[in-house]
Specification:
The chain has 19 helices and five strands. By secondary structure, the protein is mostly helical. A three-stranded antiparallel β-sheet has the order 1-2-3. The N and C termini lie far apart (46 Å).
Length: 431
């Protein structure tokens, strides 16, 4: 078995470098011992982001830029100005979901046509399951990211079109993501599948029955396994060792995330850093690998591929925090599941972790595992009145701000603008 180390992770001794936040993505981040990090690393809070003073200037008729009056280390080092987009919704026009991926619409159409055939027709049951999975199209956020980063980075090196490897990478990423969803539904015993990412209160689509509900748990597990195996075969045929290691690590991270979550249920001593690590494993790892892999196949400098990795990581973390906020702020109809369902299962997310800092009674309720009638509703109310939602919103914005900065290495283009819009559209879900 090949020994692999995840990018920016040393599982034996060190903690992720993304647990710290600041005004500059170039800021050096001290690494802490995993044994002591819960005591030595302060909770990520909104103080840095919230305290930053900003003013706006009109760059052109369609773009608005924001400049920080706080001097970052990058500026002190002479790297140059570090403008970032205005993340405040009231200062910009709403972003249309229908137009979000317009720049790569043709690429996504081709991908949709290829997905069913790439799974293969060896087994009629698995093929039927594949048709159920891929037939509805879906949001295809991850392959869209691959296409957008591929085209944005291709412009740096003069590539006129995407390569076959770019397109196959997008297909592999979507297969891995779908396989993980099938297994997640089995673990969660979910009867309906609806990918809530990129959904807003005004744009909620009906769910569809899960694979295990239609075909049984055995077929669902096998379908997920088959899709993981098929994606691994196509991944090996890309014949790029760096990308193979990168994507293979993602599959390991999925399992690590599930184990980490299962081992910390109802644990009120869970630190924010541990929550972010779990969120990286379950969500951000695949997105970061997608964006970095796309840049690698464009043949750009390593500095750019690293920035694309950081972009995917920060975007993925922001996504997860937003999803965890929506678990408290949206209705059961909007979520496709009962509000507060993560909390009910003992899965403590950012809003709960922040609220626990202010309300001891909340700890008592959670540690009792909601044994009393009405205790879950009481806990949800504590999360709301103790500022847990607001602080989580600020955390999501901090990660979004970092993601926008990671895109500054790319030339101005339709594709970079679409990537920026993706970051902002995610924040619109909680505004």
């Amino acid at each position: 078995m090949i020994s692999m180390t995840c990018h920016n992770l040393d599982f034996g001794r060190r903690l992720l470098d993304f647990v710290a936040v600041g005004s500059s993505s170039n800021t050096s981040i001290e690494r802490h011992s995993a044994k002591n990090y819960g005591k030595t690393i302060p909770n990520v809070s909104s103080k840095i982001y919230g305290a930053r003073k900003m003013f706006y200037c009109r760059q052109n008729i369609t773009r608005t830029r924001v400049f920080s009056t706080k001097t970052s280390e990058a500026l002190l080092d002479g790297v140059g100005t570090a403008p970032v987009l205005d993340l405040n919704k009231k200062h910009r026009s709403p972003i249309s979901l229908a137009n979000l991926f317009e720049a790569v619409a043709d690429d996504l159409q081709t991908l949709n046509q290829n997905l069913q055939s790439i799974v293969g027709a060896e087994n009629p049951v698995l093929m039927s399951a594949a048709e159920q999975i891929f037939g509805a199209g879906g949001k295809r956020m991850r392959p869209a990211l691959v296409f957008l980063v591929s085209r944005a980075t291709a412009e740096l090196v003069g590539l006129k079109d995407l390569t076959t490897k770019h397109r196959r990478l997008a297909e592999i990423i979507e297969m891995i993501h779908t396989a993980s969803l099938i297994h997640d539904d089995v673990l969660d015993e979910s009867d309906m599948r609806r990918d809530s990412r990129f959904e807003t209160a005004a744009n909620v689509t009906a769910g569809k029955e899960t694979i295990h509900q239609l075909y049984g748990t055995r077929v669902a597990v096998l379908a997920g396994d088959f899709m993981f195996a098929q994606s691994s075969w196509h991944l090996a045929n890309l014949e790029n060792l760096e990308v193979i290691k990168l994507i293979s690590q993602v599959i390991k991270d999925f399992a690590s995330g599930e184990i980490k979550q299962a081992s910390s249920l109802f644990d009120c001593d869970l630190e924010l850093e541990e929550y972010l690590l779990k969120s990286y494993y379950k969500t951000a790892s695949l997105i970061a690998a997608s964006t970095k892999g796309a840049a690698i196949f464009s043949g750009v400098d390593r500095s750019v591929t690293e920035q694309m990795y950081e972009f995917g990581k920060n975007l993925g973390l922001s996504f997860q925090v937003v999803d965890d906020i929506l678990d408290f702020t949206q209705s059961a109809e909007q979520l496709g599941k009962p509000a507060g369902s993560d909390l009910a299962k003992g899965n403590l997310t950012a809003p709960v972790i922040f609220a626990l800092e202010k309300e001891l009674k909340l700890r008592e309720i959670i540690e009792s595992e909601f044994c009393e009638t009405g205790s879950l509703d009481e806990a949800i109310e504590f999360v709301k009145i103790c500022g847990g939602i607001e602080r989580a919103q600020e955390l999501a914005k901090e990660k979004a701000d970092l993601a926008i900065k990671n895109l500054q290495c790319l030339p101005q283009s339709t594709y970079r603008l679409a990537l920026e819009n993706m970051v902002m559209f995610n924040l619109d879900r909680i505004d």
